[in-house]
Amino acid sequence: MAVILSNTLVSAGIFKMTVAFTGAVKPGQFFMLRAWDKDPLLSRPISVHNYESGQLTFLYQVVGKGTEILARLQADDEVTIQGPYGNGFPEITGDLCVVGGGIGTAPLYYLVRHYQEQNPTGKCRVYLGFRDIAYGADAFAALADEVVLDVGGIITDKLTVLPGETVVTCGPEIMMAAVAGAVPAENTVYVSLEAHMACGIGACLGCTCETRSGNKKVCTDGPVFVREEVFNV
Question: What 8-state DSSP symbol labels residue 104?
Answer without folding.
Answer: G
